[in-house]
Amino acid sequence: MSECLLCHRENLQQLTLWQLLNFQPVVPDLLCQECMGQLEPISVDEACSGCGRKCAAQFCNDCLLWKAVPNFSNRALFQYNDLLKRFMSQYKFYGDYRLRKVFQDKIEREVRQFHADLVLPIPINPATQQHRGFNQVAGFLERIETVDGLVTRDRVKQQPQSGKNRQERLRTEQPFTLNLNSKKFNKKRVLIVDDIYTTGRTIRHAAELLQSAGANEVMGLTLAHG
Predict the structure, then answer these.
(1) Is the pLDDT of residue 169 over 70?
(2) What is the pLDDT of residues 76-104, one digit of tens each?
(3) Cβ neighbours of 148 (radius 10 Å)
(4) 91 vs 133: CA distance, rounded Å
């Protein structure tokens, strides 16, 4: 008997016929079926080609208006609904590091499909790293070879992105600098991974920096779009 890591109810798992007949080990689900059922996946064919949000058109209004980073696109896996807000609060702000495993398989499959030369998690500043004890994005990617190609300019975050409104987010200045020689990125296909795409300012800042370092193609992958 296991417990859902998010709602803490008993997590009853039904065995498949294939598991029973083949005597396969049972790996318990980390979230219960009720919590998993509240996720809202975004399929590629119903997503904005620019930012990855659920959108009936090829490009959403934001991407049509904002062309700050050409040749960049983001893939978002889920809509940032109430369930994922609870998940990120418990994982990111309350430090429940066990939750990193919930989406590792899904994110790993998506990363493989990009066939990137380099995979970069969005960094967090040293003060946040010391306080929280981990980078939440790197936690999703712990089974994938990544490169720490970016670092934050500030050692302490002056104001969390979650505390800013949309206009304040869009006015945010470049928060990153390269952590490696620009030759590392020259003519490379680079994938940036982050947790939540809101206005996209953070991940697009990272994309601008990598494009200026000579990357041939820069793409984004986020757990959710909010």
Answers:
(1) no
(2) 999 999 999 999 999 999 999 999 999 99
(3) 12
(4) 12
d(CA 52, CA 86): 21
Q: What is the DSSP string of the chain?
A: -EE-TTT--EE--PPPHHHHHTTPPP---SS-HHHHTT--B--GGGB-TTT--B-SSSS-HHHHH--SSTTEEEEEEEE--HHHHHHHIIIIIS--GGGGGTTHHHHHHHHHHHT-SEEEEPP--HHHHHHHSS-HHHHHTTTS-----EEES-SS-SS-GGGS-HHHHHT----EEESS-GGGTTT-EEEEEEEEESSSHHHHHHHHHHHHTT-SEEEEEEEEE-
Q: Residue 151: what are its φ and ψ, rounded to 5°?
A: -135, 155
What is the pTM (predicted TM-score) of this model?
A: 0.87
pLDDT score of 156: 75
Specify the pairing of strand 150-152 against strand 176-178.
antiparallel
Q: Supply 89's token pair.
A: 């609060």
Residue 19: pLDDT over 50: no
Per-domain residue ranges of the chain: 1-37, 43-225
